[in-house]
Amino acid sequence: MSGDAGQAGVRLTTIAREWGRIGCIGFGGPPTHIALLRRLCVEERKWLAPTEFEDAIAATNLLPGPASTQLAIYSAWRLRGTAGALVGGVCFIVPGLVVILGLAAFFLSGGVPRWALGAAAGAGAAVAAVAVHAGVGLAPASWQRAGTARAARLRWIGYLLAGGLAAALTGPWLVLVLVATGVLEVVVRTGIPGRSTSVSTPLPLAITVPALGGLAAVSWVAFKVGALSYGGGFVIIPLMQSDAVTHYHWMTDAQFLNAVALGQITPGPVVQTVAAVGYAAAGLPGGLLAALVAFAPSFLFILCGGPHFDRLRTNPRVLAFLSGSGPAVIGAILGSAIPLTLALQHAWQFAVLAAAALWLAAAALWLVAARRGVVGTLLSAAAIGVAAAALGLPIT
Questions:
Q1: CA-CA distance, 185 to 88, in Å (whole number)?
Q2: Are the C-beta atoms of 192 and 164 separated by less than 8 Å?
Q3: C-alpha dihedral, 149 to 154 to 155 to 159, nearest 10°
Q4: Residue 185 burial (CB count, 10 A)
Q5: Residue-range domain boundaries for the chain
């Protein structure tokens, strides 16, 4: 990838229109976003070479935060520099943000119709199955990266188990395990890093500031999600759940499950779940602030780091760190299903969870597009929840 950004002839209005369109139709999360961006930038408009786009995917996956959002920002940056990155990133993010804030306002307000509460309870019941589906889908590529050496594969299994246990048991301390597995793999592969070649790792998300309240607390939670979390997607769920439910008591477990489900069925990245958390904490200002703080690091990473992506993705210590933290992230995604399942309250919800797990497993075997299957599963679970409400089953 070249360090020079910007292609003459690509107007900002074109970037706004195309990135906004992807933001509106991008139901399905990162796989859908990547496919739509590739079709636009590589296949249809030929703005980027195929190898450059693949390198961009690899580089943005090295960064903390939502990788598909960073890919969208980077692609726009390559076309029109800083202005393109800002316009493209904002237009990509805003459609899903508007939808999730509207749904959060509806579901967190008083007087929600019983059918809507049932829909939320049904969709929330399927979230744990979606988490397992996401983790299983990531495992083959990570396993292949580990290589064929017996010791490397045993370490991979150990990292996976460590991440799963940490997500299930430790809450906000999860990121310490992710960092530790990455550093351990660096030491195993390259020796103890010296001062000039040390691996840059994120600060622990377990850091909390109990004295913070209101918008300051929302900012802190959103910053941890957007700037300090490796893996993105479901790996942030146990971290947000600990803050939103246990530490600050902004939401109940059921409301948090609903927020995660909303983040899955709306267009845009899963990280937008943090906007629903911010709304629960401080209304519309809290939701907007949470989104701003959570996504700001993605813009900074691209604007400041874009010219250096080549060195980042070929650095042996960085690659070793990812080889250790990668399986731990997958384990964390799988492990997040445990607290999500424990948050369920009613027997019919466990039945919905079992049905969702079976359907997603069948969809994977039939090679149904991963996140299309996820969205359909959540919508089906929501429909079951509506039926449960109509039958008079408990929903809250």
A1: 36
A2: no
A3: 140
A4: 27
A5: 96-390
- Separation CA 227–CA 296 (nearest Å): 8
- From the list 390, 76, 123, 79, the residue with the least C-alpha distance to 254 is 123
Compute the Cα dihedral for 216, 251, 342, 382 and give only its sign: negative
Longest CA pairwise span in the chain (Å): 65
* DSSP label of 47: -
**What token pair was written down for 85?**
């990155």
Record the tokens describing residue 213, joined without a space: 């309240």
Q: Which amino acid type is present at position 75?
A: S
Residue from 89, 92, 5 nearest 47 by CA: 5
Is the pLDDT at 155 greater than 60? The verdict is yes
Task: Report the candidate in 325, 340, 351 with the shortest Cα–Cα distance to residue 130.
Answer: 340
With contact defined as beta carbons under 8 Å apart, do 260 and 336 qualify? no
- pLDDT greater than 50 at residue 211: no
Phi/psi of residue 249, nearest 5 degrees: 60, 40
Of 61, 318, 326, 334, nearest to 178 by C-alpha is 326
| 334-353 pLDDT tens trace | 888 898 898 898 999 999 99
Cβ burial 231-268 (10 Å sphere, 16+ → b, else e): bbbbbbbbbbbbbbbeebebbebbbbbbbbbbbbbbbb
Q: Which helix (H) or strand (E) holds 113?
A: none
Nearest CA to 268 out of 61, 54, 66 is that of 66
State the average pLDDT for the chain. 84
Closest to 167 measured CA to CA, from 135, 139, 190? 135
Whether 202 has a pLDDT exceeding 70, the answer reads no
